[in-house]
Amino acid sequence: MVAAIGLYLNTVNNYKMFGQDSCESSASSVFSKSVSRQSVQQDTKTSRFDLNGKIDTNFGQSTKLNDCWLLAAIYSIANTPKGKKLIEDSITLLHDNKVKVTLKGVNISYIYDKDYVKSRTDLAGGDLDVRLFEIAAEDYVRKNPQRNKNHLDGNRPWVAFRLLTGKGTRNYDSESNIRGTLSDYKIDSFNDENYIAVVWKSTDVPKTFKTADGKSVTLEGSHTYSVIGSDSNNVYIVNPHDSSEKIAVPRNIFKNFFNRIDEFYL
User: Per-domain residue ranges for the chain?
Assistant: First the structure.
């Protein structure tokens, strides 16, 4: 039995939908099961994956749910100093096997039984604190639809940023196209410790390329990736299918593949 307690609630605007959402794929390629992704799912059975109020272990998106828009946003936030603190301040471990999670952006809290969180194997595997945020977001949007959606299956990353932090912009929403327009100066800003961003491509068409060491990497369309930095040659991103793998994407490929970015400074 799980108890969910809403403490405070602020209004979050609903926005008209334009086109296909991030993670809302019409093709099965977005859910191609890699070995690494399966291993993250299986690791939930080990004792080191437990609720501890921190996002400090790897996680992998469930094959049953298109919520990369939320998971990539969580990773991007937790990958910055201020974001890490915000995440930790959002989770409180209680007595009697309970945990409280607060969606800071809308100022509402939920209390769950830890065993319930562990039982939700339909959600992300690995770090259970990530799953905790999924459950809270799921409960929130069920009663407060975001962009006319009352579920986690496909949405926009800026929705996740607003729920989790109260910040975030739609600098480049679904009506904007940034493909080929990002400057190197802009890409250099990805290294600012307070900069938070995710990127995605609004169609299902994938792109396969080889890294400098000859490894073949496929970037999926209609799928959100966390941006974690850049250097003179590459942009570094993380796929929520398996957060343990950092992907080095050559700048020219990054510029010409992704056409959506949601970003803000925390």
Answer: 52-165, 184-265
